[in-house]
Each structure stands twice: as C-alpha cells, then as structure tokens.
C-alpha cells in the first residue's frame, strides 16, 4: 500500500473513486482539524470514553468478519464499545443502551460536543450531494440521532459513535447511510500540535492506501469501502480510536410494521 500523507499542516489528503463521483476519503489538513477541536482539554474527551468503556463491561459483538484484536502482549479481552442509537434485534431502534444510564452528565456533554465537531467537519468538507442526501432523509424519515439523557441535547446527523482502546480492526465494511468520521485521541496529552507524529494508520487495502493519523486528525470516509485500523505506531502510546456513524437500518427505522407516509409513498413511486 502507498502511504498518503503531507507534512505541511495546511495540506490534507483526498481520494476520489472516479472523476465523476464524490470524494470517498478525506483527511483534513492538520491545521483545520486543530481549528475544529478545542484548544485544550483533550484528556476530558479521552476520560469520557474511558468512563463509557468501564460501563460497557463487555465488547460489542461484531462477528468474525469484523473481529477486533488487542494491540500488544496484553491478555486482556479487546474492548470495542458503542454509545448512541442502536438497532434492536426485536425490531425498531433504541435511543441508547441502559448501561450508560449512570454516565455523568459532564461526560455526556463532552460526547455530544465531540460529535457535533465531527458533524461540523462533515458539513465543511463533504461533497454537497452527501449533505443533500442527509437533509432529504431527515425531512422524510423521523430517525433518531445521538442524544443525552436528562437533556434536550441532540446532534444533527450521527446516530452513534464506536470506539476501542489500543485495538486494531480486521479489514471490513459497514452498512452506513452516509460518510463516517473517525479520530484518534492520545492519553496524557491535553493539547495537540501541528507537529505531532502519527500514532496509527487508517488503511483502505482495496484502494492500496494507508493514511497516517495524528492525535485529533479528522478522517471522513465511505465505510462501505473495505477499511481497517492498524496497531499503534509506538507501544508506549495509549490511544482511543473513535468513529462517528449513522447506520442505514437506523434511518430505515428497522420496523416494517410502520405505515408509509404520503411523502414516502410518492418517493417510492418514483424509485427506479
């Protein structure tokens, strides 16, 4: 694979599938990622995710095709957790897992704010047709997005975020409705800088591309393209890899018993 990178903090990385198609992979210029992120307080983000991890207790089931591995020689079971809207096996969707009911409000506020920054990234750098699709879906279907309990706080687009600490992921695809956004946070650093070194690589094997990820970098990507996360660049690092996403089944409400609205019937009639 080729390593796509730029040492200039005002230059990003982008991959387009075809000249007539939208960009499928975008790593923001380093300066832009740092502008969107808070100037300090990175450890608040890291510790909010650690608190969620402790409440998760067990890793989410992803199947053999998307198996998660623990980085290093630790015998601990690899943990991969998800916070936000979930598809129910009994039909429909759940606003959030009951396991996070005791998560302090300060951590919920941090999670909502970091998700809104990811959405701001999507709005600023994704192609117009991606945003039009999201707006049309919101007008047509009343799907749930990530929200905080005991509050009216709700994000615009993403349903949930998934994260793992010092893990690497087998190459896989996800059935996401729109582009996803991913970041990596580094423990022990409250401020990130333009000159930070990469801590891991986000890989797209079928595109023969590996993209270095520095702490706080925003990467926008099409999750239907096979992708994976590498192990850490440095064994001494303690990193948290996070992805913000919206599942197609969440937009579809995962319940065939719901009657179609008049607008939805009109759209169905015009389907090719």
Describe the structure.
The radius of gyration is 18 Å and the shape is globular. The protein has 272 residues and is of the alpha+beta class. It has a single domain (2-269), classed as Double-stranded beta-helix. The longest helix has 21 residues, at 105-125. The protein is 25% helix and 24% strand. It has helices at 30-36, 42-56, 105-125, 128-140, 248-251, 262-269, and strands at residues 2-3, 13-16, 23-27, 68-70, 80-84, 86-87, 93-94, 160-165, 167-172, 180-186, 200-204, 209-213, 219-221, 227-229, 239-245. Strands 2-3-13-10-15-8-5 form a 7-stranded antiparallel β-sheet, covered by helices on one side. A 6-stranded mixed β-sheet has the order 1-12-11-14-9-4, with no helix packed on it. A two-stranded antiparallel ribbon has the order 6-7. The protein starts with a strand and ends with a helix. The protein is built from 6 helices and 15 strands.
């Amino acid at each position: 694979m080729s390593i796509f990178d730029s040492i200039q903090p005002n230059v990003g990385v982008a991959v387009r599938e075809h000249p007539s198609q939208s960009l499928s992979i975008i790593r923001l210029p380093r300066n832009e990622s740092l502008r969107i992120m808070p100037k300090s307080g990175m450890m608040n983000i890291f510790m909010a995710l650690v608190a969620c991890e402790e409440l998760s207790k067990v890793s989410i089931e992803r199947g053999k095709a998307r198996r998660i591995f623990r980085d290093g020689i630790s015998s601990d079971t690899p943990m991969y957790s998800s916070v936000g809207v979930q598809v129910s096996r009994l039909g429909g969707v759940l606003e959030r897992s009951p396991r996070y009911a005791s998560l302090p409000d300060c951590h919920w506020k941090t999670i909502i704010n970091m998700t809104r920054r990811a959405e701001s990234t999507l709005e600023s750098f994704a192609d117009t047709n991606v945003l039009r699709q999201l707006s049309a879906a919101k007008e047509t279907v009343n799907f749930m997005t990530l929200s905080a309990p005991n509050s009216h706080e709700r994000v615009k687009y993403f349903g949930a975020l998934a994260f793992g600490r010092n893990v690497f992921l087998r190459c896989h695809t996800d059935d996401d409705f729109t582009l996803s956004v991913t970041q990596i946070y580094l423990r022990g650093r409250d401020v990130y800088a333009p000159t930070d070194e990469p801590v891991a690589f986000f890989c797209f094997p079928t595109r023969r591309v590996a993209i270095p990820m520095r702490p706080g970098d925003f990467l926008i990507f099409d999750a239907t393209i096979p992708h994976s996360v590498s192990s850490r660049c440095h064994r001494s690092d303690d990193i948290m890899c996070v992805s913000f996403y919206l599942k197609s089944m969440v937009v579809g409400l995962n319940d065939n018993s719901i009657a179609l609205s008049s607008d939805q019937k009109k759209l169905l009639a015009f389907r090719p």
